[in-house]
Amino acid sequence: MKKLMYIVSLFVLVSMLLSACAPKATPTAVATEPPAPTEPPVPAWTAPEGALVSFPSATAPTLDGVGDEAAWADADEVVITVAGGANGFTTDVHIKTIYTADSIYFLVSYADSTESWFRSPWQMQADGTWMKINDPNDLGGDNNLVYEDKMAFIWPINNSIANFESVGCFIACHAGEEGKPYGNKYTASEGELGDIWHWKSIRNLNQIDDQYLDWTRYNAETAKEAGRKSDPKESGGYSDNYGTKPDPADATKTVADKTIPGFSSPSTDLATGAPGYILASEKVPFDAAAFNPGDYIPGIVKSEMVGDRGNISAGWKYADGTWTLEFGRLLDTGSEFDVQFTDLSAMYYFSVAVFDNAQVRHAFETGVSFLVFKP
Hints:
This protein is mainly beta and 375 residues long. The protein contains three helices and 25 strands. The protein has a domain of 225 residues: Immunoglobulin-like (Sandwich). The strands form six sheets. Strands 1, 2, 3, 4, 7, 10, 11, 12, 21, 22, 23, 24 and 25 form a 13-stranded mixed beta sheet that branches. It is elongated and about 100 Å long.
């Protein structure tokens, strides 16, 4: 028995010695995923210096000339000085812009000490005849006395106007040429097109007049306005308030009778001619017996434009010596006569002009401005 216990003890001791001397087991490696690559931080968007920045907005503003929406408060403002206009006019133009998924909007305001709305009305004379009130110094399309307040933007279409980005709208102004005392407006070469947004405080109704500029030179018979043209329209717009008379060449037709008005309106203040226009929806045929010497009748009949020419919706107000305008249109109108804001990463150049009771002699921006979109 003692011998058996000795053998067992010896076996246990040998087993322990062999276990201690054996190499340690290598731990099984556990597979791990490689670390994900670190993306560099996206730098914050910064507007180019001097840019008019259009801010994104979830909602469109109400175009009433008030500009009290929160989106306007969040947008940055640029101030563009215009000078050199008729009647010694100089002012600072304040501009903000926002955009939605499909449209762009602008808020524009500027100081103007007088609201000009007395635009060449008719006045009944003591002998019963009617006279159109005009600027006696107007040598042709150059009324600076009895006109209206206006404002305009011009944009190159598809950057087609060479050197516009450095010179601005001066590139299309040609003073001292035949036809007009103030010169003509046109681009230098075929294919150079500009989009003109031309707000007319008396002649427009809930819209800004959408026009364009091309390379047409002045011609007294075929192109009195040289390169300035209007986008196509289907109907509506404004017209001079003239009467009609039989056409001497064709008794079945009529022509304008520029000695009498064609319409009047119950909304007109006969003592002053206010508001300076007749709505087409309110016009009534002119009846001379209804008026007395000294009475005024507006010289313009207007309605909203239907078609390409009317695609800029707008509202405006004059208060406390300041004009405030709100206007907007689609980013992409689909018109060949419009600048298209289809690339929100691009830079869009423009120039601003303001007319103080002036037909053409506007105050102008020196140089050029540009628009960008904030992502």
